[in-house]
Amino acid sequence: MTRKESMEKIKLAATSAFGLEAVVKRELTDLGYENIVTDNGWLYFDAEIQDICKTNINLRCADRVMLVMGQFEALSFEELFDKTYELPWEKWITKDGKFTVNGKSVKSKLYSTPDCQRMVKKAISKKLCEYYDTDWMPETGAEFTILVSIHKDIATISIDTTGAREGLFKRGYREKSMAAPLKETMAAALVKLSYWNKNRVLYDPLCGSGTIAIEAALIGRNIAPGLNRNFASMEWPLVKDEYWKNEKIEARKRIDFDSEIKIYASDVSEKAIRIAKENAIEAGVDDCIEFFVKDVTHIEKPMCSYGVLITNPPYAERIGDEEQLTKIHKKLGQVFGRDKTWSVYVITSSVNFEKEFGRKADRKRKLFNGDMRVDYYQYFGEKMPE
After folding, report:
1. Which structural domain, as residue segments, surrounds residue 310?
2. Which of 24, 137, 220, 228 has its CA 20 to 30 A from that of 173?
3. What is residue 178's predicted lDDT score, i.e. its pLDDT?
């Protein structure tokens, strides 16, 4: 492929969990993208083929990076078929390409998702069979997961560049975890939404398998989250190996090996701390984090001033112990909520959190941890002296 072909304009979309659109938009802006359009959890932006590599390697809080093939009104199955057929599938999908079609339809005339999927699959198959002059597609090669999403009669047809089975939350370091762990992308977003920076102490007193602490360390070290994993589009002929290599070289140049980063993480479970330490070593940030066994209800005072606490307490729905959860919330308020120098950030599904913590939050953000509706309670401490 020539340099001219690699610079050909395409449209990408980073998908976002509910409530994190602004965080993902800021990430895209920091990576140099402009004219970003947000619509229903999708952030659209103009790009070049090499940007498939750049975004997958560097985005911390997005769920996936989608290659947008086309958007159009679809009021009938015939219209859906014809307009899907017109898209340049032969440019991306090889003769032996294995492609599956997923779908969803909301508030649209074409409401049957399985029928929409079948129609899109049929249109793509017809286009590719004609282009490659064959009666059937063997589908033994690279994987292409196609999504047909119809919202208010507007169909968006896209290909998942990240990978159907492993979204961007799969960093590659978390081989083991505790029950109901926080997704890596959500943990990174919690850190991004806080006022923490690498010059301040960060503490997670309910760390579980260490995800919040590890994601904070990756941010502090400026280690790109996708450096040590594979993506579906690595197998696509148009997305050359040299593009991935170049983006990884640039990402490694930006790593900060010199700053002293102080992150503390504790949990009542010895097993959790053992797993967290292993995960931190796998992520290459074990030098940034001090893990230790500690019951949060036994903490008497903060370890320093002007720290930032970010934590994900267990949910009553999952641990089945409302009384213990109340004790945890009260202790966090007594120790850290009363210290005016500490900033406190807690994600929880508990509707009584503010009452138990002892203070109304300075800000509350509605999020979803998987399918569970949660709130991110934010308490802002005093500004750290220069």
Report:
1. 184-226+254-379
2. 24
3. 64
